[in-house]
User: What shape does this take?
Amino acid sequence: MNTYAILSSDKNFTIFEYNDQVIRFATSSKLERYTRVLEWDHGYLVVMAKYQNIGEVEEYIDLIPILQSLYYDTEAFLEPIKEVRIEYAA
Assistant: This one.
């Protein structure tokens, strides 16, 4: 089992992947890509994101309400994740 999750985006969606779980949720149509993970705190992410016409800005993602709305056991799902990496297909 991996100890890291993957963050990426595709069109109007943010994608959070951990092992065989893929969670997609809506994001701004202006988001070009996530560029850097600044902090991972058990479901709370601070990242740098590049937006059209704005450039790179700091952004905050709280996964807990998203996971809860999907009926995940948030504690069990998040516990093994020690790191979040940004990956995009080449």
